[in-house]
Structure formats: C-alpha cells, structure tokens
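Lab channel / #folding
Pinned by the channel admin:
"Please post every new chain as: sequence first, then the structure tokens as a reply. Keep commentary short and put observations after the output so the thread stays searchable."

First post following the new format, from NK:
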Amino acid sequence: MATPDAAIIIPHYNDPDRLARCLTALTRNDLSRVEVLVVDNNSTAPLTDVQARFRDVRFVTETEKGAAAARNRGVAETDAPLLFFIDADCVAADDWVAKAHEVAPLADLIGGRVDVFDETPPPRSGAEAFEAVFAFNFQNYIEVQGFTGSGNLVTTREVFEDVGGFRGGVSEDLDWSTRAVSKGYDLIYREDLVVSHPSRSDWAALQHKWRRLTQELFGVNGNTPRDRLKWTLRALAMPVSAIVHTPKVLHSDKLSGWGEKLRAVGTLFRLRVQRMFWMLKQAMGYEI
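Reply from TO:
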C-alpha cells in the first residue's frame, strides 16, 4: 500500500473476541487510504487466530501496561499525518473512516458519538439500564466539559506531537484533550462520527469501570489541601446528584418499561453512594 494518509490506532489487552468484532466492523469501511494498527499490551490471551483472519492489519506489542502507552506506541509506529483512535471493544459505523476523513479538516480534535449496545439478551440488568442512559455522552463531554474520550477521536500527528503523548495513571482521555485545548487547539463534536460500545452487563463490571475512573480522576484533581477539600465536597454531593438525575432515568426513551427504569434508578443510587465512599477515602489519603 502507498503511504497511508491516516492510521487507525487500536489499543488492546486480553479481549480477542471483541477485537475481532472491532476489526470486522472496520473491514466494512473503505480502508484504501488508511493503515490499521493494533497495539497489544502484552496480552496473555493469544492473538494468533485474530492475526490470521486480518492479515492486512499490523500488530505491534507494547510491554508497558496501559492504553496510554499503547496509543503512544501506535503513533510512533506510523508516519501517517492523520490519527484515528478507536478502542478494541468498540464497533465502528460502516462510514466511520469516510466520516473521519471528512471531518478531519474542520478542527484540531474531533470527538464523535458513542452509542451503547447490550451484549446480553433482554431484560436489561440494572447496570445495562444505567449505561443506556448515562454512558458516553460525548456531546456533553466536548461542548460542556471541554474534553473528549479517545475511543472515538480524530486528530493530526502535528497536534499530537505538540501536545505530547497520553499519560498513564490518570484519566488519559481527559488529561490529553485538556492539555490540547489549553494549548489553543480547537475541539468539536460530530454527531455523524459514530462508534458503538457494549454496556457493562452487571454490577461487578460497572463497579470495576467506576473504580478505575475514580482513581484516574483523582489523579488529575490535584493533591493540595484545597484540592482534597474540593474532592471531599464533590464526594458528599454524589447522593444528591443521584436524586437530581432520577428524572432523567424515569423520562428516558432509551429504557423499556418501569422494570428497567426502576433497576436503573437503583443502580444510580448504589453507584453514587459507592463513589462517595471511594472519594472520601481518597481525600483522606487511602487507596481504593
């Protein structure tokens, strides 16, 4: 293939079935102008079968753990001027690559829509119902909070090299895009740049996700006494936020029937109270 004008970078660790699903979805796109790079974090699960099925995909191993290191390695492995980031458990729309090329000239960083789908048959669990309402509101992240995730991100090599790589141990998405915006790069949301992500199927999976996010968010919060006080106040506001967000669940058109809505409300309160305790422990200097 001639030198690609874009590289699709996919960090992966021990999830070959979902990676195969991700790559299958990408093959429904026009890949004539792109290089697809899977950066494996030294998985224990073999990728032999996946590699045999997708011979046009380049597989690289990064021994440093974490998606941040994997994404950085992916960028280092290609000279492509455009960088398209997607996660191994995401499913790209059939026109995702075409849309990424289309929107790339519009801004320095472009984040797209992330839909949620269930991997288990109905009825939805409380975790799945919660995720259907609250997971991956990229429009809010970008247009209100000023950052984007890296599971559906378009940028350029020039921007990436100026901002520097992703940093592990913190919320790398928030950290990287916030650094980019602080340097004056513009960030926009595109509704038509679409990937889908599986919902967390049960409480254990949802709890694992939010424990990790809480650890990462505390990493970018700061560690001064004032920062810890602010974190404490945010922690104490968690149960109140569950009350505030209950009407959003009850009026959501993404949920079917009162059973799903009540399970989602129960999970909402359970998770926010759990997060409160985690955050209070962090503010007092303990690990969670």
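NK: Residues 195 and 274 are 29 Å apart (CA to CA).
TO: also worth noting, The beta strands are 6-12, 34-40, 58-61, 82-86, 91-92, 109-117, 152-156, 187-198.
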